[in-house]
Amino acid sequence: MVETKKINIEVAYALPEQQVIIPLQVNVGTTVLQAIKLSGVLDQFENIDLATSKFGIFGKAEKPETELREKDRVEIYRPLIADPKESRRKRAEKKKTQAEAEKK
User: Fold this and answer.
1) Taking every pair of C-alpha atoms in the chain, what is the biggest distance, in angstroms?
2) Which of 7, 47, 54, 83 fits as disulfide partner to 77, beta carbons 3.0 to 4.6 Å?
3) At 94, which CATH number?
């Protein structure tokens, strides 16, 4: 009987009000997508859409077919509510307006 080598990983997903980190032991060669499915996180959070979600390992974007290594943490990212560039531009504009108002 051939024993398959296992690795320890985590699958993480967070909402503003709730976060889960699910520890798993998976076979060597398991991919990001396979780990997400094995974790059961899709049963806990029905709003996760695998077709449109982005994934990463420790904050670095990865493809669903990326093979995992020992102690990797798979992260499922939520879609952005606002464009970060647009948000920065609006904050800078607001700050400029406030500075001009203080000069008067």
Assistant:
1) 82
2) 54
3) 3.10.20.280
